[in-house]
Design a protein that fits this description.
heterotrimer, A mainly alpha (about 950), B mainly alpha (about 60), C alpha/beta (about 130), A: about 950 residues, mainly alpha, two-stranded antiparallel sheet, 35 helices, elongated, disordered N terminus, B: about 60 residues, 3 helices
């Protein structure tokens, strides 16, 4: 595009200009094509609009039932695709037909912008939702001290920049309609009287549609759910329609992409489109970069994009998915642009047909009228989607930021009661007004050059918002005067270098000021300002306007001392992520009455809603009802924010100031309030931390307490059980002196046994407690394990013999000495051995004691040939008070022996476990490392006598 | 901090995209070559584009809420 | 006709003492060593009263009590819970499960006998 031009596409515009002519010369293009009946096309369009209406109505109904359909990242992403208008739906193909890949920067830019969406756009959304921002103008005004002047300027720039863009959509629809319905070879429909012009009715129908969905609610932060659903639906329709045409062209008209590209490469002109540099043409990288940057900014600052991405956003988290789904959508809708463009050029022959309407004319020429109709509906979709959202966004701005400030100056207005109806009427009028302006522009400049590149001209206009918007979000120093100066300068240069030349070249303003400069001053030629000739006109305009814009914004901001209100707003915007609602500082001092504020709110939001708002506020603040609310700064801020949602922040500021008595804040006040809020935040943070710590500590204590409780309960049970037998039997013997001697003897035996059990239990509980608390004494010395095991074997020998069992020992001749407490090790061995002795069968019992010396340490195994331990109890056997065996043949034991053994072994750095059951009885194993845990004895201390307290 | 890391990764991806879609890296693909029957220059642009989107999706979808 | 009593406990020595005590009072005594056995004996012998230990293998006293109350054939069996766990929550749980009385170990034989008599009194003919 731009600096180069294809010979076969006869362009009348100069080489520097964006060359494609959408919807221009239809008569030649249609030669040889069939047509559709107007009734069919009109009927289909009407049916489609009705369907859209139904979708929107359904979504609104669902939202009222609390089952929103738009609360989902996919719908959000699809609504973003309102970016793809009729201009791109038809124009991309035209652009590709004349410039190859030059249609791409318009989509690569948004993709890059979306990479940063999670950081930049999310902040914008957070700010907009926190302060109930209603539009891009409101955003700027609010940031720079709620300045009505700035809001008005932004609105003005938007209207001037966007109206031609709307005209372009209208033209797309009307020329698409003309292409489909004009008979073969007939001359292009001449423009008749205005009342016969279908485009006017298209505009009015869309205005009606927009009014229904855009202005049902007053508060724009109450989202337009129906509209968003309809827009998402339209995005699906236009994608499906465009892809359908692409598939038809690629596989229907040609034999697939390979065939299509092979044929294109055979034509030198088409080959040049696909690899420009190789064909000797210079690729305009500067313009490519400029277009990428431009579309990157536009995708955020176009009013309709700001509307769907920021204002209509339901949940910040949706951005995470939408940020990649939206670029993926752009990619999908662009895949077939080149095939359709090349297909059209090959099919009709270069220059024979208007490339901008290939999407319609290719199916039509091939006799696929149905597909042509689908393609038309797709284009209609793209156009209506853009118009509806743009009109809503612009009407909100016009109402809140142009009309309201003027009305507020009128005495009559300030005496009116409820103005909610008036506000809605203003918005509806603004919608009709914007669309009629668009129609008027279309009517006046219908065939003119001005329309051709109007999309990019609009992009360049909204790009002027970027410095003040982005600066305002990240730079606290950005000031109102700087924003005003930057915007004015950027806008003026945009008008001079882009808007005026395009009007001049459209032909309805006869002038040579573009070529020769105003009054013949060459240095002021609008497209070569100051003699800068090496840039194309778009890059040139962008360079100068943004240079002046950024330069003045920064310089004036630095030079001027900001007012207190600007500083406070700057703090609130830039630090929006740093504070929660409650700890956000409120920059207001003064006196207010609840009644006055309630009445004011009622005027703009309706009395019922105002009452409900105040009731909710009272409840949230712990007041019994609305009349008992403390009329403090927070209430004033609450009312102002609610009003801002309806009439914009600047107007809300004026209205609130009119009913309260407020002190003027100076810079010191702002800083002091900020300081207080910071301290409050620090306190609440510290408090939160302390609470969390306390809670954790408490939970730890509770779980310890539960453990101790369980332990105590178990100990109690174990103590009470023998006591029960002792007491019962003793009482029986006391009651019955004549008890037979044999019976008495048996009872006394039981009493003695139970007493022993009690003693054992008490000793072991104490032992356990000592070890666990680290108060046990350890008399460590060099231990010969072989000797120790032999000694243990001798000790239990008698016990085993009584039970008719034999002891088998497998010991090596000698093992290294081990440092440990021999008495404790003996305790472990005795416990394991006597345990084994309890479980051996009555006949042929056998206990094995084995010792192995490994590299790391010694391993001792104690095995019996009893029934073994059931698998279910393996994990529990080392827990306190878990005994092996079932009720009747449970051995005498306390349930503490094995836990104590394990504690002792672990104290020496070893491990004790039960071997997995092999069907040959239970096998307990413990290992002891040679270099048993180093004892923290001071150097030189006697190694033999120290008491280890580790 | 996790969110800070995500921010830096996104910034890096943005820089990568800006490089890929501009001179001089773009000129590397501007050759008279067919790849699987498709002209290299536009194919490379679309491929880089798809790659960028895939990387973005990967970064964002695995980020914690 | 002598009244049948079931004693369910897993501690043999407690069983010995309780069996002696109840026989001395003139009841017909059956014994069970775990919860499941207790249920089986109740269904087979239909005792009037069960002295039920809480901590038993296979089925706890609580579970036994619950199953008794759920079974129409034996739901009128009187249940006296015995436990070595004296916590209030255990007592409350036992009563909630449908026990008729609750005695903590170690108990006085006189008190236990008194409780048993009280439980059996209203339905004992001629008492």
């Amino acid at each position: 595009m731009g600096s180069r031009k294809l010979a076969f596409i006869g362009r009348e515009a100069g080489g520097r200009h964006l060359p494609e002519l959408p919807f221009g010369r239809t008569a030649a293009a249609r030669r040889g094509l069939t047509m559709l009946s107007p009734a069919l096309v009109l009927g289909a369009s009407l049916a489609y609009l009705l369907l859209l209406f139904v979708v929107a109505w359904w979504a609104d109904a669902r939202s009222q039932q609390g089952r929103s359909v738009i609360g989902n990242a996919w719908v959000y992403a699809l609504s973003m695709a309102v970016y793809c208008t009729a201009w791109t739906y038809f124009g991309s193909v035209g652009r590709a037909a004349s410039g190859g890949v030059w249609f791409l920067p318009i989509y690569l830019g948004p993709t890059l912008a979306m990479v940063l969406a999670w950081t930049v756009l999310r902040k914008m959304i957070r700010i907009a939702h926190t302060y109930r921002i209603t539009s891009i103008a409101d955003f700027m005004a609010s940031r720079y001290g709620k300045s009505p002047l700035l809001a008005g300027l932004v609105t003005l720039i938007t209207v001037v920049g966007i109206v031609p863009y709307i005209a372009l959509q209208l033209k797309a629809v009307s020329s698409g309609y003309a292409l489909l319905t004009t008979p073969l070879g007939a001359p292009s429909t001449g423009r008749g009287s205005w009342w016969l012009d279908g485009t006017l009715y298209v505009a009015l129908a869309l205005a009606g549609f927009t009014m229904i969905f855009g202005t049902r609610h007053l508060d724009s932060t109450e989202r337009h759910e129906g509209m968003v659903a309809a827009i998402a639906f339209e995005s699906v329709v236009k994608l499906v329609a465009f892809v359908a045409v692409g598939v038809f062209v690629t596989w229907g008209l040609f034999g697939g992409p390979g065939d299509l590209f092979a044929r294109a490469m055979a034509v030198p002109e088409l080959k040049a489109l696909l690899s420009p540099a190789q064909q000797g043409t210079r690729f305009a990288y500067a313009q490519w970069f400029a277009l990428t940057m431009l579309s990157m900014l536009s995708v955020i600052f176009l009013p309709r994009q700001f509307q769907v991405m920021v204002i209509e956003n339901v949940d910040e988290q949706h951005l995470k998915r939408a940020a990649w789904v939206f670029p993926a959508y752009l990619l999908a809708i662009n895949v077939f642009v080149l095939p359709i463009a090349l297909g059209g050029l090959l099919y009709f022959g270069a220059g024979a047909a208007n490339a901008d309407t290939f999407v319609l004319s290719l199916p039509l020429a091939a006799g696929h009228n149905g597909l042509a109709l689908v393609a038309f509906v797709g284009g209609l979709s793209a156009a209506t989607g853009m118009i509806i959202v743009e009109a809503i966004a612009v009407s909100t701005m016009v109402c809140n930021d142009l009309v309201m400030p003027m009305l507020l100056r009128l005495r009559r207005f300030s005496q009116r009661g409820d103005v909610t109806g008036l506000l809605l009427a203003i918005r509806r009028a603004a919608i009709v007004g914007v669309l009629l302006l668009g129609y008027l522009y279309f009517h006046l400049a219908g065939e003119a050059y001005a329309l051709v590149s109007i999309g990019l001209i609009s992009f360049a206009a909204v790009a002027q918002f970027a410095p003040a918007m982005l600066g305002g979000m990240y730079w606290k120093g950005g000031a109102r005067a700087g924003a005003l100066a930057g915007l004015l300068a950027g806008f003026a240069l945009w008008v001079y270098t882009l808007m005026l030349p395009s009007i001049a070249k459209s032909g309805w303003w006869q002038t040579d000021f573009v070529a020769r400069g105003p009054f013949g001053i060459e240095l002021l030629r609008p497209e070569q300002l100051l003699g800068l000739t090496s840039l194309d006109y778009l890059t040139h305009s962008l360079f100068w306007s943004l240079l002046a814009n950024v330069g003045l914004y920064v310089m004036v901001s630095l030079l001027r001392t900001p007012k207190a209100r600007e500083t406070s707003q700057a703090l609130l915007f830039v630090d929006v992520f740093d504070r929660t609602q409650a700890s956000r500082p409120v920059f207001w001092r003064g006196r207010a009455k609840v009644g006055d504020l309630l009445a004011l709110t009622g005027r703009f939001l309706g009395e019922a809603r105002a009452a409900k708002l105040f009731d909710d506020y009272a409840r949230a603040r712990g007041a019994p009802d609305a009349s008992r609310i403390e009329p403090d700064a927070r209430l004033v801020q609450f009312v102002e924010t609610e009003l801002a949602g309806a009439i914009g922040s600047a107007s809300a500021r004026v209205m609130v100031a009119s009913v309260v008595e407020e002190d003027k804040l100076d810079m010191d006040d702002v800083l002091r309030i900020l300081d207080e809020a910071s301290q409050l935040r620090a306190y609440s943070k510290a408090l939160e931390n302390a609470t969390a710590e306390l809670r954790a500590a408490n939970q730890r204590l509770e779980s310890l307490d539960r453990l101790k409780d369980d332990f105590m309960s178990s100990v109690t049970h174990e103590l009470r059980t023998p006591l029960t037998s002792i007491r019962a039997l003793a009482e029986l013997m006391v009651d019955d002196p004549d008890m037979p001697a044999g019976q008495r003897q048996q009872f006394l035996g039981i009493v003695v046994g139970e007493t022993e059990r009690l003693t054992r239990l008490v000793n072991q509980v104490l032992d356990m407690a000592k070890i666990e608390s680290g108060h046990a004494e350890w008399h460590n010395s060099e231990v010969d394990l072989v000797a120790l095991l032999k000694q243990a074997g001798e000790t239990v020998h008698e016990l085993l013999r009584e039970r008719g069992a034999e002891l088998v020992m497998q010991l090596p001749a000698r093992v290294p000495m081990l440092r440990a407490d021999p008495d404790r090790l003996m305790q472990v061995l005795m416990n394991l051995l006597s345990n084994a002795a309890k479980f051996v069968p009555a006949q042929g019992g056998r206990v094995e004691l084995r010792l192995y010396a490994g590299a790391e340490g010694a391993t001792v195994e104690v095995q019996d040939n009893g029934d073994g331990v059931p698998a279910a109890q393996h994990a529990l056997i080392f827990e306190k008070f878990r005994q092996g065996g079932d009720a009747w043949n449970r051995p005498q034991g306390t349930g503490l022996g094995l836990p104590i053994c394990r504690q002792i072994v672990e104290h020496f750095g070893g491990r004790m476990e039960l071997r997995p059951d092999t069907g040959q009885g239970a096998c307990f194993v413990f290992t002891l490392p040679w270099n048993s845990r180093p004892e923290p004895a001071p150097p030189g201390a006697s190694m033999a006598a120290d008491g280890d307290r580790a | 901090m996790r969110s800070g890391l995500l921010r830096q990764r996104l910034l890096g991806l943005f820089a990568l995209g800006l490089l890929l879609f501009n001179f001089p890296l773009m000129a590397v693909w501007d050759r008279d070559v067919l790849l699987f029957g498709l002209p290299l220059f536009p194919s490379a642009l679309f491929f880089a584009w798809a790659l960028l989107i895939a990387a973005l999706a990967w970064l964002l979808e695995r980020a914690p809420d | 006709m002598t009244i049948k009593i079931l004693i369910a406990d897993d501690e043999p020595n407690i069983l010995i003492s309780l069996e002696y005590l109840m026989k001395r009072e003139g009841y017909e005594v059956h014994i069970a060593r775990d919860g499941q056995e207790a249920l089986d004996v109740v269904r087979r012998e239909r005792p009037r009263l069960v002295l039920l230990d809480v901590m038993m293998p296979r089925k706890s006293g609580f579970e036994v009590c619950q199953e008794l109350r759920a079974d129409d054939a034996v739901k009128d069996t009187l249940v006296l819970m015995l436990t070595a766990k004296g916590r209030d929550t255990d007592v409350a749980k036992g009563l909630a499960m449908g026990a008729d009385a609750y005695v903590t170990k170690p108990f006085s034989t006189k008190d236990l006998v008194q409780k048993v008599r009280e439980l059996l009194a209203p339905t004992t003919p001629g008492a």
